[in-house]
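CO-FOLDING WORKSHEET

Operator: S.A.
Ligand of interest: zinc ion
Run index: 341
Mode: holo prediction, single chain
Checklist:
[x] sequence pasted
[x] SMILES validated
[ ] output reviewed
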Amino acid sequence: MKAVVKTKPEPGAELQEVDAPTPGPGEVLIKIAATSICGTDLHIYEWNDWAKSRIRIPQIMGHEFAGYVEEVGAEVHTVSPGDYVSAETHIYCGKCFLCHIGKAHICRNVEILGVDRDGSFAEYIVVPERVVWKNALDLPPKVASIREPFGNAVHAIKRAQVAGKRVLIFGDGTIGLMACAVAKALGAYSVWLVGLVKRRLELARALGADEAVNARAADPVAQVRKWTEGLGADVVLEMAGAEAAFRQALEAVRPGGRLIAFGLPPREVPLDIPQLVFKEVEVVGVVGRHIFGTWEQATRLLSRLDLSPLVTHELPLSEFQLGFEKLLRRAAIKVILYPGE
Ligand SMILES: [Zn+2]
Ligand SMILES: [Zn+2]
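OUTPUT RECEIVED:
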């Protein structure tokens, strides 16, 4: 089969002809209909410090996908050939303390698709039955392929507890944009987004943000204070993964408010502890999706929200390099790759 493989410890990746995987006991073989490039894939493509420390080469990249079950291994009972599916990308063990207390997404033995094992930038993928999710048949593959990052947005907004609140989101990446729509759908009183790219700020408004401000043009903290009688936002989500945004997020949250840490800064970020203490800010780290509570909730939200404007480029798998280049220049939001073309 064709697959995009990380073959060398340097920037880039290669389209290769490799053996298609076969499903073992408890595993499912899926024919990929659509697969989407994520920020994690960009890190692996660029070969940053995190990728160097985590990725074993050669490895097939990619983890966000939708496809059709081709074949099931022995002892698979809930999935059948022909099912239209996506998958939770955190392969949890189901046996550790965290899995037992309902926190499988932070399982001690988690393996991530396309990071710790072969991924979805290929014609086929094998995943354990326990992470397979059946999609609604009317959900287009390009949208079904981005429900994994959508789940990140749903999980983060759920943890933020936004109903009736004034919500500020830092970051105009895919998940920050999705979070605008989710926050509105889950009853936020108002939603403001801080970003850097004009087109993305427009999209934030189209997805439900009341205001979207350019961090280069205006001081976001001053702006939020103006909107909140000097008080600050009830809830702030840091989804930019930038040191400056984290500092501003702490300044922009009101006393007694909640700060969601979601973005991953490339370096350690110094934290103003006295400000945190005197404002009694609750800081909550958020990762992944609650398995499978988030998927259930995301399914309901997807029947109401239209995520298709986030998909800016659709390419055959063989043109993956073009997709990566556009994303690295921030000229694209979501790039979908089709192995069947
Ligand atoms: Zn992803
Ligand atoms: Zn576990």
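REVIEW:
The chain is about 30% helix and 25% strand.
The chain has a mean pLDDT of 97.
[x] output reviewed
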